[in-house]
Design goal:
The chain has two domains: about 190 residues, Rossmann fold (3-Layer(aba) Sandwich), CATH 3.40.50; about 190 residues, 3-Layer(aba) Sandwich (Rossmann fold). Helices cover about 50% and strands about 15% of the residues. The protein has 19 helices and 15 strands. Strand 2, helix 4 and strand 3 form a beta-alpha-beta unit. The relative contact order is 0.11.
Length: about 425
């Protein structure tokens, strides 16, 4: 009965959203995902073996699956792993990471779409990264006696906890979370929030974050020299990399850059926006500010009119190369944190031993940012002026940069092991 009610609500919502979906498709172009996959017509899994269905909603979650997949293949080579995602960036990244695995678009939460997906994939267990839970998925999987677990679990207070506590959805949320077989929470705070949402306390373990495992602890990323050479990045001059930036942040970054250049004229700047649909917008902004925009996708400059010999700003407008930029960096700013967008992953930056700056809005990565701040591996800034001052200070003090970078790497290394603890539980559920 619940699934029928949900299907009716979803159908009405889809009908109302159709004009907007058509507009978005025309604006962005075809997604490349077959329409049938939205409704459960995903690729058939031909092998009769235990199967783990891993789902990550977007790019960050898909990147976090790397160590889980590697650990599963190492400890249970006969187990089949399939991967799903919701966003185009997540699907593209999954296809890059797992060319030999089945990768598909996570279906819409219609009960018939979920049933068809389960029939075609035949998972032994479903693993959701962080908090990608849907009521029909839990209802149908529970009826089919397929355990659903949450790995790398986290519940943000500002968004998820409040949303699931709305009077209209609270009862449904308690029923849904009560069907979760196990949760690997990132920390004690998230564990308490899962209990509040309705997961029985004895089904929750604090495992830490698998992203600490996935952070590449290295002094070098394959392909970074080729990227630098193609774009014209000078390895002998300092490079400030601003990664995963959000709307309005690029303006603040360019303001800060202008201030830093007054005292550190050799500094190079690279901006890598979070959303691919914003690449053109940011390119225009760079040119409007009087800089030559050097886009990674073309490696050709776009020069502002009337400016002789404009200073270049590098724009990372390709997918999957952010870590290469980070590895080339002298200083890193982790974006979506000067504006209220929740912040960006700082663990990969720390794993590369780079000093990292963040803004005041980091709630989506609160645990990792708090760790780096406590270890003096990270600095928090509040505005463009403070950002410029922090960058200039780190440029002037190489030893300070080195201490911050090494402290961040040590902090990451001390928190590893979540992937192994999660796979322990997955294999136990098979038994």
């Amino acid at each position: 009965m619940l699934s029928i009610l949900l299907d009716v609500i979803y159908a009405l919502a889809l009908l109302l959203a159709t004009p907007w979906l058509i507009y978005r498709r025309r604006k962005r172009g075809p997604s490349g995902v077959p329409l049938r996959e939205y409704f459960g017509r995903v690729p058939n899994r031909p092998v009769a073996a235990h199967c783990v269905w891993l789902h990550g909603v977007s790019l960050g979650e898909i990147n976090a699956t790397r160590t889980l997949v590697a650990e599963l293949h190492r400890r249970a080579p006969g187990v089949v792993v399939v991967i799903s995602s919701t966003t185009q960036t997540g699907l593209r990244r999954a296809a890059e990471l797992y060319p030999n695995l089945i990768v598909f678009r996570f279906p819409l939460d219609f009960s018939f779409a979920i049933r068809q997906t389960l029939t075609r994939v035949r998972p032994s267990i479903i693993v959701l990264l962080e908090l990608e839970v849907w009521p029909n998925l839990l209802e149908v999987a529970s009826a089919a006696k397929i355990p659903v677990v949450i790995a790398n679990g986290r519940v943000t207070e500002e968004k998820s906890l409040r949303r699931f506590n709305w009077p209209v959805v609270r009862r449904l949320a308690r029923r849904m979370f009560g069907r979760i077989r196990w949760v690997g929470a990132q920390d004690e705070t998230y564990r308490a929030r899962f209990i509040e949402l309705g997961v029985p306390a004895d089904r929750i373990a604090v495992t830490g974050s698998v992203k600490y495992d996935a952070a590449d602890v290295s002094d070098h990323i394959a392909g970074q020299e080729e990227l630098a050479q193609a774009m014209g990045i000078d390895a002998d001059k300092p490079l400030w990399v601003c990664g995963s930036t959000g709307p309005e942040e690029e303006t603040a970054v360019l303001d800060a850059y202008a201030r830093v250049l007054e005292h550190g004229p050799e500094l190079q700047l690279a901006i890598i926006p979070r959303k691919p649909e914003r690449f053109d917008e940011v390119a225009r902004l760079i040119v409007q500010r009087g800089y030559a925009c050097l886009r990674r996708s073309t490696n050709a400059p776009v020069v502002p009119v009337g400016v002789s010999e404009p200073r270049p700003v590098f724009l990372g407008d390709t997918l999957g190369e952010l870590r290469k930029f980070y590895s080339l960096a002298t200083v890193v700013f982790a974006g979506r944190s000067l504006v209220p967008l929740g912040g960006s992953d700082v663990m990969e930056v720390a794993g590369l031993a780079k000093p990292v700056l963040v803004g005041p809005y980091t709630e989506n990565f609160a645990d990792a940012v708090s760790l780096l701040l406590s270890e003096a591996a990270c600095r928090r800034v509040s505005c463009a002026d403070a950002l410029a001052a922090a960058v200039l200070d780190l440029l002037r003090h190489p030893a300070r940069r080195e201490r911050m970078g090494q402290a961040g790497r040590a902090a990451i290394m001390s928190r590893r092991g979540a992937s192994a603890r999660t796979v322990d539980e997955i294999l136990a559920l098979f038994a």
